[in-house]
Design goal:
- This protein is mainly alpha-helical.
- The protein is built from 7 helices and 3 strands; from the N terminus they run αααβααββαα.
- It has a 3-stranded antiparallel β-sheet with strand order 1-3-2.
- Strand 2 and strand 3 form a beta hairpin.
- The chain is elongated.
- About 15% of the residues are buried.
- The model has no long low-confidence stretch (mean pLDDT about 85).
């Protein structure tokens, strides 16, 4: 018996559309990722913040917003949540006292490691039907389409 919404029941016009298939896969992947992050007590957006802070060290909020490609106003609310949970510290930037520098705490690093493990597991499940060459080709194509050829992204299946 096929599940409701099973792609095999869709008209050929939809299954022939790359954009439609990407949208379907994106929604399913996002839903699973959000649930996995919720299980460890963070939002999906928090994972990006953790990862940038781990890679770059203490960062001003403007740098985080630019790196994550999100609105600075949206970032403030996310940082507030993480600070309240003790996962980041917001301190005056020693180089510019007008700015706030965000730092990952030890508890934040623990959540990052849990998030990385969940991300790796989800990605392995997502690309399981593909062989290693197909995985590499898909990843390369997605990076090109997203304009990320020169950036190193976390959570990439080998």
């Amino acid at each position: 018996m096929q599940a409701e919404g099973d792609a095999r029941t869709l008209p050929d016009e939809l299954t022939a559309s790359t954009g439609y298939l990407l949208a379907v896969l994106g929604r399913a992947s996002q839903r699973r990722f959000m649930l996995a992050m919720a299980e460890i007590g963070v939002k999906a957006a928090h994972y990006g913040i953790f990862t940038v802070l781990d890679a770059e060290g203490p960062s001003p909020q403007t740098r985080l917003a630019a790196a994550l490609r999100i609105d600075r106003g949206q970032l403030v609310g996310l940082i507030d949540e993480l600070e309240e949970a003790g996962l980041v510290l917001r301190e005056r930037d020693p180089e510019d006292r007008r700015r706030q520098a965000i730092t990952l705490t030890a508890a934040g690093r623990e959540r990052l490691e849990a998030a990385r493990a969940a991300c790796a597991r989800l990605e392995a499940e997502l690309v399981a039907p593909l062989d290693p060459a197909q995985r590499a080709a898909l990843h390369g194509a997605l990076r090109r389409l997203a304009g990320l050829e020169d950036e190193v992204l976390p959570c990439v299946a080998d």
